[in-house]
């Protein structure tokens, strides 16, 4: 799975123009990543009990953080190990699209984890709004990141985010918000504490129903895909990578990278659509052999 992921990233960064078929295939992969991460976060929440919240708070918070940490390492590795800034920008855009699809799936945990990873200093020093790399991002990606910034604004104890969750029971809460609320639970003497446990139970019931519909899947499946080499988890490693990224051209010539336009339908999980993109430099036999490297988290 990890080898397939690397092949996918290589194909993405080499693509200069996107046909209608390319765009459809691209969003099938975006949807696959978002669905895979959606399942993983919901399964992990189902492993936490109300008893754990009181008896082993630290363990609960560690478990809630496990997915976000692994996903952050995956995103940092993808973006910061790119050969140049233009390639890194394409990968950055891809992960923003996965976050958008996660939001359409009503999973704000996955959406917020991706947003937090992309706004971490290691990536933000390259693609922050006041940085040169920001010019490489298409307008729709810039606009989406501004919208995410408003949604995950910490002011008022994440008032904007909490208002959104209160308006609709369909949304799946970010784990960081649950971990924050669990930190202050002592007993069930206040309405707020009872509300936190009720919310936890609601998200678990919601998850169990969706998981039952989608079929077998384990947390190990997700972590195997997200996992990267232990040595690469050192923050100094990612920090050095972010300082080494250079553009292909002089910064005065920066133009936004080419990416598929957004589409307004949920792609189908058709595992027969082999390769994400066709590499025109390959012969038909080479293309056929390359099909085994196509990333498809549905299969």
Automatic annotation (TrEMBL):
Q: Which Pfam families match?
A: RasGEF (PF00617)
Record-annotated Ras-GEF domain positions: 62-189
Q: Which InterPro entries match?
A: Ras_GEF_dom_sf, RASGEF_cat_dom, RASGEF_cat_dom_sf
Top-rank lineage group of the source organism: Bacteria
Gene Ontology terms for molecular function: guanyl-nucleotide exchange factor activity
Per the UniProt entry, what is one GO biological process? small GTPase-mediated signal transduction
Q: What is the protein name for this chain?
A: RasGEF domain protein
Question: Which species does the entry assign this protein to?
Answer: Piscirickettsia salmonis
């Amino acid at each position: 799975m990890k080898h397939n992921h690397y092949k996918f990233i290589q194909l993405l960064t080499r693509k200069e123009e996107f046909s209608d078929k390319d765009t459809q295939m691209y969003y099938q992969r975006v949807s696959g990543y978002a669905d895979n991460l959606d399942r993983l976060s919901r399964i992990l929440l189902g492993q936490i009990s109300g008893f754990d919240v009181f008896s082993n708070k630290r363990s609960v918070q560690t478990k809630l953080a496990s997915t976000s940490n692994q996903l952050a390492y995956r995103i940092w590795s993808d973006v910061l190990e790119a050969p140049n800034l233009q390639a890194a920008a394409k990968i950055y855009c891809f992960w923003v699209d996965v976050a958008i699809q996660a939001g359409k799936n009503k999973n704000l945990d996955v959406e917020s984890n991706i947003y937090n990873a992309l706004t971490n200093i290691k990536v933000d020093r390259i693609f922050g709004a006041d940085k040169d790399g920001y010019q490489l991002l298409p307008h729709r990606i810039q606009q989406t990141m501004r919208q995410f910034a408003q949604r995950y604004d910490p002011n008022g104890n994440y008032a904007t985010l909490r208002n959104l969750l209160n308006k609709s029971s369909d949304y799946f809460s970010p784990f960081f918000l649950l971990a924050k609320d669990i930190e202050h639970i002592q007993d069930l003497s206040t309405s707020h504490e009872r509300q936190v446990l009720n919310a936890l139970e609601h998200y678990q019931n919601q998850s169990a129903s969706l998981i039952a519909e989608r079929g077998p899947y384990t947390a190990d499946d997700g972590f195997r895909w997200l996992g990267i080499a232990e040595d690469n988890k050192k923050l100094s490693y990612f920090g050095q990578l972010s300082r080494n990224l250079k553009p292909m051209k002089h910064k005065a010539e920066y133009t936004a990278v080419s990416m598929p336009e957004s589409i307004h339908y949920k792609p189908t999980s058709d595992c027969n659509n082999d390769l994400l993109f066709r590499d025109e430099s390959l012969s038909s036999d080479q293309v056929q052999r390359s099909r085994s490297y196509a990333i498809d988290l549905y299969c």
